[in-house]
Amino acid sequence: MTARRRLVRVPGSSANLGPGFDVFAAALSVHLELEVTEAGDFGVDPGGDPLPTDRSNLCVRAFERLHSADGLTFAISNSIPLACGVGSSGAAIVAGLLAADHMFELGLERDQVYEHAVALEGHPDNVAAALYGGIELCPRPSGDGLPRPVRLEPPNGIEPVLVVPSERVPTTEARAALPSEVAFGDAVANIAAASQLALGIERSELDLIARGLADRLHQPHREPLYPRSIELLA
User: Fold this and answer.
1) What domains lie within the chain, and their CATH numbers?
2) Could you give the CA distance from residue 170 to residue 174 in angstroms, rounded to a whole number?
3) Do 3 and 180 meet the contact criterion of CB atoms below 8 Å apart?
4) Bridge partners of 77?
5) Which region, left, alpha or beta, applies to residue 16 given φ > 0 means left and ψ of -120 to 50 means alpha?
6) How far is CA 187 from the centre of its chain?
7) What is the SS3 assignment for 145?
8) 126 SS3 class
9) Element (H or E) spanning 152, and its range?
10) Given CB 3.0 to 4.6 Å as the disulfide criterion, which of 90, 96, 99, 197 pairs with 59?
């Protein structure tokens, strides 16, 4: 009997683009590959990364949201830098969910996978870009549930430059640096900037994109964590 095997490949992402905190994200050409094989015993090969090798591994946790991992081995090959703001956790979650869906032919729609991914990640932007690709604009959950992200095609004339910091900052620490309340003027400024960013991406207008990258909600508060990054942005 031939053992079942599934291989999935998921991109990393850059989220919180400019003023789009938890809203805007772009898929990047760095990837996580996850191969799941029926081997009779459970096991995880992290591929050299300092990742858990038990069921706390994020790929496994996501997989087991849909199906037990008993008797399966998980082999991870990852080119996404860890804890560097390029969506390594979002990619791991999406990879685990897709592997379970395809291996056991669960027949989930892409939007159903997205709902599971957001529940595991806690915010929608990185998992949206990892799952749908392109640049994603993620509406917030409402009383009617979780709306599907809106895909924006990458603008002409722009290519991303990925600058990876030498020091890692865990997501929990980065989110803890944010205030629970913001000034009214800062909120209005971010609405204006986000509107310009979306229009600039749609129209490939570089001036609009440049003005649309201004932020007052998260970048100033995270400057002590990323002083070199903020200097480069300036």
Assistant:
1) 5-156+164-233 (3.30.230.10)
2) 6
3) no
4) 33
5) left
6) 24
7) strand
8) helix
9) strand 150-152
10) 96
Report whether 100 contacts 6 (CB < 8 A): no
Instruction: Phi first, then psi: give them for residue 74, nearest 5 degrees.
Output: -120, 115
Contact 187, 194 (CB under 8 A): no
Structure tokens at 233: 């942005």
Whether the predicted model's global pTM rises above the 0.85 cut: yes
Spell out the residues 6+ positions from residue 160 whose beta carbon is closer than 8 angstroms to its own: 14, 26, 28
The one-character DSSP state at 142 is B
Residue type (1 letter), 126? N
Angle between helices 88-103 and 110-121 (to 10 degrees): 140
181 φ, ψ (degrees, to nearest 5): -135, 150
- Token readout for 31 is 């990837």
Q: Which of 158, 156, 125 is nearest to 26 (CA)?
A: 125
Q: Are 104 and 95 contacting, i.e. CB atoms less than 8 angstroms apart?
A: no
Task: Note the pLDDT tens digit of each residue in 45-102.
Answer: 999 888 999 999 999 999 999 999 999 999 999 999 888 889 999 999 999 999 999 9
CA 213 to chain centre: 19
Cβ atoms within 10 Å, residue 39: 13
For 3, the token pair is 């053992």
DSSP letter for 141, please: P
